[in-house]
Amino acid sequence: MKKCLIHTEKPYEVVIGSGVSGKIGEYLTSLGLSGKVLVVSDTNVAPLYAEGVADELVYHGFEPSIFTFDAGEESKNLSTYGDILAFLAEDEFTRTDTVLALGGGVVGDMAGFAAATYMRGIHFINMPTSLLAAIDSSVGGKTAVDLPQGKNLVGAFYQPELVLFDTDFMKTLPYDEIRNGLGEGVKYAVLEGGEIFDILSDGLTSDNLEQFIYLSVEAKRRIVEEDEKEGGVRKFLNLGHTIAHAVETLTEYVVPHGLAVAYGVRMMARFACERGELAEEQYAKIEGLLLANDLALELNPISELIPYFAADKKRAGDMITLVTIAGIGDCRLTKLPLDELKSYFGVE
Predict the structure, then answer these.
(1) Same structural domain for residues 155 and 275?
(2) What does the pLDDT look like over 229-285, one tens digit per residue?
(3) Fewer CB atoms < 10 Å away: N or C end of the chain?
(4) Is the pTM of the predicted complex or chain greater than 0.70?
(5) Which helix H or strand E contains 3, and what residues bound it?
(6) Do residues 111 and 84 touch, judged by C-beta distance below 8 A?
(7) What is the tally of structural domains in the chain?
(8) Are 139 and 224 in contact (CB under 8 A)?
(9) Domain end residue (candidates: 120, 137, 172)
(10) CATH classification of the domain holding 78
């Protein structure tokens, strides 16, 4: 078992290990929580784990309910968000009660945003069940829903009080979901270099899984602690994401987030190499890592994606901030006017 303490305005612990989900009642009790708990999950995860979590909560004196919505990014909208709020209100949840996210990134975002806004904020616990959520979206306090115009355009910063990832959840993850998580892991590998880059280059195994998740969380911890509300260095965590969000919007989320991020990182590395900003040897190492993880993707060309960049959250007026790659472990924040994006990416 590994633990990370996230020192944000509201500090909390990230616990990673085999079997930790079976102790959820103990963890909530140790935090001083009691009363009602709404377990928010989706149609993929709820049949596997929701009843077990609820039983564990009952055993420790909690009053759990389960709210399930259709799995997939298409459910990450204002309608589903409203349904969660209505359930909380109808079941007479108060500010002393708790919302518990049990699922991947979509579930965490939806449950977290509901917890942040219901009665102006109630207790929130995150139990990610996907690799992608474990290494990224469950940590840092970003919660959001999508609009038809773009991804994550409505949301709030709201830190959980505990993040609990049971590595046994990986046993029920299909290959596509593991690959999706590795796509987000590519971001950390290029940002950090070092051990995390080596782990992904050699291949994720049951022996290095816990260490990989821990290193990813630690990487995010250092950045989030320095910049909780994304005013500066936290923008580095958006490596590959401007392109990724455009791919997701253009394909109506047929391409999942992690694969889109891997493609975004690949494109940023490719253009950096073409511009002479990234050494060919370094680019080859990034390509090798992508190939080793079945993530050397060719998706929508940049010319199709640039029109969607204007809806990106990193836009400020007519400027957008891209995370550019100068080397493995050496990324930069580059501000560009929107009208220079085509020339920057060599699009005529």
Answers:
(1) no
(2) 888 899 999 999 999 999 999 999 899 999 999 999 999 999 999 999 999 999 999
(3) C
(4) yes
(5) strand 2-6
(6) yes
(7) 2
(8) yes
(9) 172
(10) 3.40.50.1970
195 and 233 belong to one structural domain: yes
Write out the chain in H/E/C secondary structure.
Answer: CEEEEECCCCCEEEEEECCHHHHHHHHHHHCCCCCEEEEEEECCCHHHHHHHHHHHHHHCCCEEEEEEECCCHHHCCHHHHHHHHHHHHHCCCCCCCEEEEEECHHHHHHHHHHHHHHHHCCEEEEEECCHHHHHHHCCCCEEEEEECCEEEEEEEECCCCEEEEEHHHHHHCCHHHHHHHHHHHHHHHHHHCHHHHHHHHHCCCCCCHHHHHHHHHHHHHHHHHHCCCCCCHHHHHHCCHHHHHHHHHHCCCCCCHHHHHHHHHHHHHHHHHHCCCCCHHHHHHHHHHHHHCCCCCCCCCHHHHHHHHCCCCCEECCEEEEEEEEECCEEEEEEEEHHHHHHHCCCC
Q: Is the pLDDT of residue 186 over 80?
A: yes
- Residue pair 239/20 in contact by the 8 Å Cβ criterion: no
Task: Take residue 342 and report the two structure tokens written for it.
Answer: 């085509």
pLDDT at 313: 67
Mean pLDDT for the stretch of residues 163-179: 94
pLDDT digits (tens, 9 = 90+) for 105-164: 999 999 999 999 999 999 999 999 999 999 999 999 999 999 988 888 999 999 999 999
